[in-house]
Amino acid sequence: MARQLLIGGVVVLMVLGMGISPVAAQGRLDPPVITHAEGRDASIYLMWSAVQGAARYHVGLDLVDGSAAGRHEAVPGGRTSHTVTGLQNGKEYWVWVWGDRGDGVEGVPSDAVRVTPMASTAPTSPGRTAPPAVDLTCHGYDEGATRAYNCIPGSGKMKRDPAAI
């Protein structure tokens, strides 16, 4: 069932009961939903829900403090994730996604999320980096064509059986 509704001098076609959203009924794509946003070293990794009819997606971003002009990157329609690179670590960004049909009609943008890229840090080493010294006394002996060694805990100094040399 379709109904026309006059809003501010604009006729809007509403399709009811057919599983079509009001946005899609207007010829625009539904907004994607950002499902994951992660700040990485000088980059932001995003994942979002697929939008039916999207030929490609666009990722938009702006610095939260407004100190730089925004930018956007195009992403092929079959992909629902993207990494935006070349960002400043420690700066907070607004990020959002929208689709387009490939015919000039852009979809409704997702809600924007705030993400901060952060420099990755190497794990710190434990207090000791070298393995502890092992105090062993070793005795060598022959087993046929094989030289074998029998090592047992020693008495505080590294000892070596002279016959094992």
Question: Can you walk me through this structure?
Answer:
Strand 1 and strand 2 (10-15) form a beta hairpin. The chain has three domains: 1-28, no CATH class; 31-115, Immunoglobulins (Immunoglobulin-like), CATH 2.60.40.10; 133-165, no CATH class. 2% of the residues lie in helices and 44% in strands. It has a four-stranded antiparallel β-sheet with strand order 6-5-8-9, with no helix packed on it. It is built from one helix and twelve strands; from the N terminus they run ββαββββββββββ. The termini are far apart. The model is unreliable at 1-20 (pLDDT under 50). The protein has 165 residues and is mainly beta. The chain has one helix spanning 22-25; strands spanning 2-7, 10-15, 34-40, 43-48, 56-63, 71-76, 81-85, 93-100, 113-115, 136-143, 146-153, 159-160.
Using brief descriptors, characterize the structure shown.
disordered N terminus, three-stranded antiparallel sheet, 12 strands, 44% strand, 165 residues, 2% helix, mainly beta, four-stranded antiparallel sheet, 1 helix, Immunoglobulin-like
Please write the CATH class name of the largest domain.
Answer: Mainly Beta
Which strand-content bin applies to the residues? 35-45%
Extract low-pLDDT stretches.
1-20
DSSP, total strands: 12
Which outline best applies? elongated
Give the helix tally: 1
Gap between N and C termini: 96 Å
The largest β sheet comes out as: 4 strands, antiparallel
Helix content: under 10%
Global mean pLDDT: 78
Number of domains: 3
